[in-house]
Specification:
Layout (H helix, E strand, L loop, with lengths): L4 E2 L2 E2 L6 E5 L7 H10 L4 E5 L5 H11 L4 E5 L4 H10 L3 E3 L5 H10 L3 E2 L1 E2 L2 H9 L4 E4 L7 H8 L7 E4 L8 H5 L7 E3 L5 H6 L2 H12 L3
Parallel strand pairs: 3-4, 3-11, 4-5, 5-6, 6-7, 8-9, 9-10
Antiparallel strand pairs: 1-2
Helix pairs in contact: 1-9, 3-4
Length: 211
């Protein structure tokens, strides 16, 4: 599994910014996904951080089939299975253990295993996976750290996530080993609470224009 295939090619090449989303209110799931698609970002990483997350995955899978639906914060084999059953199109983990890696492989879904160190990247590469998440990006050394990996680990490609902003995203996207970044700034909590989907769409448009 050298790269994450989708109908349009590698996941890392679909959009410059993957929206990383936390949904507290199930009713926000579908309009939020539609706003991201309308803004030119038809990819989402919906995190398993709230009680309604799996129901939100089911709702988006059923009502917004045009979006490439990822499920993030997958930390256990059980969560990998639950996400797959709910309708996930790909999985994202914050870190990687041998057991979790095996479980994500077992779902048959594309996935981005989380890495933060050279040893973790090497372990993922040994499993035949060359595309991965770099998390937490800013706290783990940021763009400068990833730049230092480009030569010794040239085969590895990353989606850095964690602490990245609309301002700092470009410094990551300019790197040869970065395909896209994950960003939570696209779906601010106050916009979701207010149902301000026009604002989300505008933020998505701005992020889509980064590449």
């Amino acid at each position: 599994m050298s790269e994450i295939p989708t109908s349009s090619g590698s996941l890392l090449d679909l959009v410059p910014v993957v929206p990383v989303v936390v949904i507290d209110d199930l009713e926000h799931a579908v309009p939020l996904a539609r706003a991201l698609v309308a803004g030119g970002l038809p990819v989402i990483e919906l995190t398993l951080r709230t009680p309604v997350a799996l129901d939100a995955v089911r709702a988006i899978a059923a009502e917004v089939p045009e979006i490439t639906l990822g499920v993030g914060t997958v930390c256990t084999p059980a969560q990998a299975e639950q996400a797959a059953e709910a309708g996930a199109g790909f999985l994202v983990s914050p870190g990687t253990t041998p057991t979790l890696l095996e479980a994500m492989l077992g779902t048959g879904l594309p996935f981005l295993p989380g890495t933060a160190t050279v040893s973790e990247v090497l372990a993922v590469l040994e499993a035949g996976v060359t595309e991965m998440k770099f998390f937490p990006a800013e706290a783990s050394g940021g763009a400068a750290y990833l730049k230092s990996l480009a030569s010794p680990l040239a085969v590895a490609r990353f989606c850095p996530t964690g602490g990245i902003t609309a301002t700092s995203a470009a410094s990551y996207l300019s790197l040869p080993n970065v395909g896209c970044v994950g960003g939570s700034w696209l779906t601010p909590a106050d916009a979701l609470a207010a149902g301000d989907w026009a604002r989300v769409e505008t933020l998505a448009q701005e992020a889509a224009a980064l590449r």
